[in-house]
Amino acid sequence: MENNDKRALKIISRLDGAYPGAPATYLAYKNAFEMLVATILSAHTADACVNTITPELFRRCPNPKTMMETSLKDLVELIRPCGTYNRKSEYIQGTARMIVEDFSGEVPRTMEDLVRLPGVSRKTANVVLSVVFNRNEGIVVDTHVMRVSGRLGLTYQDKNRDKAERELMEIVPREQWYEYARLIGAHGRRTCSARKPNCDECSVRNLCPSRGKFA
User: Fold this and answer.
1) Could you say which of 142, 158, 163, 200 is catalytic?
2) The pLDDT value given to residue 3
3) DSSP letters for 80-94
4) Is 213 assigned a catalytic role?
5) pLDDT tens for residues 83-102?
């Protein structure tokens, strides 16, 4: 099999043809603040669930100042349907407060500043930077990207997302980081599912060392 650098480019090209117009995120948002909060809420929670609670959340708290000033009890009730509401309510309120107090009310635009915010991991920061600000400072490694990249043999990490991201950044050209995460994510959702990947319909099956292992 080809080296990973060449194989990764072929995989991106094939998946681009298989999933034209696939979105980079399935979270609903209107601005950087909404994207940031929605991504924090999406940790260990389905995007579809997050999208059911954010309309009312953002109606009540349309900006960092109003979210900072909203009672924690009210925030808990607003996000309760999607679970882990106590911790996440503290995260989003703490993030809102830091944005107001440390960043003049604007969502920061660097990895260094974003990961200072409560509840913001590199993955969350990468989503905001790449999707909202069109900045490639890393690769978004969510559950789907982690799983599919492992099956494709492009990373040997199965738990540590930061290490997986570093391995992928060595293989995938920087100008393709956004596209890689977008397309691998779409492939993970539509074809290479966690429990029963559809290898027969996979557009990159001849580039995948795991093909045939899930029959």
Assistant:
1) 142
2) 86
3) GGGS-HHHHHHHHHH
4) no
5) 899 999 999 999 999 999 99
**Do residues 123 and 142 lie in contact, with contact meaning Cβ atoms separated by under 8 Å?**
yes
Q: Which of 55, 53, 56, 25 is nearest to 41 (CA)?
A: 53
Task: Output the pTM of the full model.
Answer: 0.92
Q: What pLDDT is attached to residue 215?
A: 60
Alpha carbon separation from 145 to 17, 63, 66, 161, 182 (Å, rounded): 18, 30, 34, 10, 9
Burial string for 27-60 (b: 16+ CB within 10 Å, else e) reads: bbbeebbbbbbbbbbbbebebeebbebbeebbee
Domains in the chain (CATH in brackets) are 4-22+138-207 (1.10.1670.10), 32-132 (1.10.340.30)
pLDDT computed for residue 1 by the predictor: 57
Q: What percent of the chain has pLDDT over 90?
A: 92
Structure tokens at 110: 């660097």
Cα 73 off chain centre by: 27
For residue 31, pLDDT beyond 60: yes
What's the DSSP call for residue 130? I
Give the pLDDT of residue 106. Answer: 98
Is 113 annotated in the active site?
no
Query: For residue 43, what are its two tokens?
Result: 């940790």
The catalytic residue among 5, 16, 123, 213 is 123
Do 155 and 168 form a contact (C-beta atoms < 8 A)?
A: yes
C-alpha span between 114 and 122 (Å, rounded): 8
